[in-house]
Amino acid sequence: MILENFETLNMGQQQLFSDTCNKLLSTGFLARDKRDSKEQYYFLISFKNYFDEYFGIMGYEVVLDREQGAVQLRHPENRNLMRLKRDESLILLILRILYHQNLVKTSINENVVINVDEIHMKYDALEIKKKINKTDLVSILRLYKKHNLIEPLGDITQGNTKVVIYPTILMAIQTQQINEVYDLVRKMEGATEGSEEE
């Protein structure tokens, strides 16, 4: 059935369908307001039944949150989870906390914007013996940019560089209560170097 429907798309739409599927498979998320995924986000909305059928064959679910402007490719058996190191997990949780704290300062149509120094300050406030160095933080932020969770607006090696946190962060850490995120951070504070799952 997907093949029959696919034939009705023009060449440009077929290419966009292919590009969108590949992006979802490689990143797991699409953010409406991220420049390089905006077109794919709106295309997915227009042809969501095609994506549902296509990914359904593989056992995946396309989760769309129109209000937040976010899409996630999810597998019910968690086959598409990414294994994260301790610092990667901590930074993800910190980004989720900063998103929550800054959301009240933004209007409905604005994204949450922080700067790199805020991430450092929040990390330092955890009083973890081993501090994160600039190189590791830059690498982690690039990882989350690749997965459409954030978008640095300049040189991420500079502390005053602004970083957009997209609503896809809410899908990456699925919890309704911010206290649960703080609990996860506290559990990790005493943890030894290891890996966590997103």
Throw out a few tags for this protein.
198 residues; alpha+beta; Arc Repressor Mutant, subunit A; 9 helices; 8 strands; 15% strand
Structure notes:
By secondary structure, this protein is an alpha+beta fold. It has two domains: 2-74, Arc Repressor Mutant, subunit A (Orthogonal Bundle); 83-197, Arc Repressor Mutant, subunit A. The chain is built from nine helices and eight strands. It has helices at residues 2-7, 11-27, 38-46, 48-57, 86-103, 116-125, 134-146, 168-172, 178-189; strands spanning 29-31, 61-65, 70-74, 83-85, 112-115, 150-152, 162-165, 195-197. The strands form three sheets. The chain has a three-stranded antiparallel sheet. The protein has a three-stranded antiparallel sheet with strand order 5-7-6. β2 and β3 form a beta hairpin. α5 (86-103) crosses α6 (116-125) and α5 (86-103) crosses α7 (134-146). The longest helix has 18 residues, at 86-103.
Count the domains: 2
Gap between N and C termini? 34 Å
**Could you tell me the radius of gyration in angstroms?**
18 Å
- What does the average pLDDT come to? 86
Structural class by helix and strand composition: alpha+beta
Order of helices and strands: HHEHHEEEHEHHEEHHE
- CATH topology grouping of the largest domain: Arc Repressor Mutant, subunit A
CATH-derived architecture of the largest domain: Orthogonal Bundle
Fraction of residues in β-strands: 15-25%
Q: Would you count the extended β strands for me? A: 8
Main sheet makeup:
3 strands, antiparallel
Helix content: 40-55%
Just give the CATH class of the largest domain: Mainly Alpha
Unreliable segments of 5+ consecutive residues: 192-198
The outline comes out as elongated
